[in-house]
Amino acid sequence: MLIISVKPSCSIETMKISSLPHGKTRKDAEERRRIVENAAGFTPEHLYRHSFEPEIASHNIENFIGVTQIPLGIAGPLKVRGKKARGSFFVPLATTEGALVATINRGCSVITEAGGAYARVMKDEMTRAPVFRTEGLEHGLRISRWINDNFHLLAKETGKVTRHGKIISAVPYICGRTMFIRLSFETGDAMGMNIATFASQKICELIERETGAVTISVSGNMCTDKKPSAINYILGRGKTVIAEATIPEVLVKQRLHSSPAEIAETALRKNLIGSAMALSMGYNSHFANMAAALFIATGQDAAQVVEASMGISTAETTDRGLYVSVRIPALELGTVGGGTALPSQSEALKLMGCSGTGKSVKFAEIAASTILAGELSTMAAQVKGELALAHMKLAR
Prior knowledge:
The structure is a single chain. The protein is α+β, with helices and mostly antiparallel strands. The protein is built from 13 helices and eleven strands. Helix 2 packs across helix 12 (360-383), helix 4 (151-161) packs across helix 5 (193-211) and helix 8 (260-277) crosses helix 12.
């Protein structure tokens, strides 16, 4: 339901958005706009401008009235040497933070000139962890044994709700009369949260019938969805991706105005020691910045940026120059489903050749390489005190 602030002079009729059906047509949108205009006392000019019919967004939003436009920039070309992403790519980034795209773009140019980023998806599975009430420890142990002995039945239930999902594992966790089962699924090129939820619901119903456990919630927070967590940091969720690059010393000096030793020390004292002192879940400079801009541009679930913000960026000196890497344990993205089919977001994916089936691994490799570029550039900026100067110049 849309929440609006109503002036005292407005009649109760202006508040009845909740009484309208979640209509999907232009006429429905116009009716909601009229109610909002009466309540707000003005007619929006920019919110109503969009290049698609409301029906196109019917699976992405309710009570549609218009769009919010976010500036879109481009970084690159960024050379990636992945398993699926092989070549140079322009990366679309949607943000309102000045200096961000420029920062990422500098990192892209340096990495590309150095030969590109090497990237690989190490693990790819979406999780859901239903929570049950049991009669106690003995009952919980019986349920655990039943799950281990009947995994094929869980797979059968999964097949009833999805052609694209496949259950990989089911791991029980017992705490008194509370029991969690962390379910992991392959979800194809979709980010997979809906697939995992639908399959988990069917599995919960099966477990209730066969074991007497009582389902409390299909999501018991051991998934863990849209929250930072040690379990996802260690085991991963969505795609676990690593990207690395080696930058020759001459490039570090000429393009980053620094040295390999200075950047390596910044990574150690800021990203690692500083994060440890704060008990941060992210041992990095700003993974979330790159992830958010890329997620918004390409129709991903923006709330899952919180999980993408976890991870480690490292920098070391070598006999070849500066070695940099990022490990992102929970990069949850897809190239089908969700907001990826919306017109602007679909085109943003097409700019990278990442729209549609068979492209999610390629997209993840590009995303991790983009995060690496942003980390490299930002660490270099902090070495020379350029971070504040860049924001003063570009963001004021």
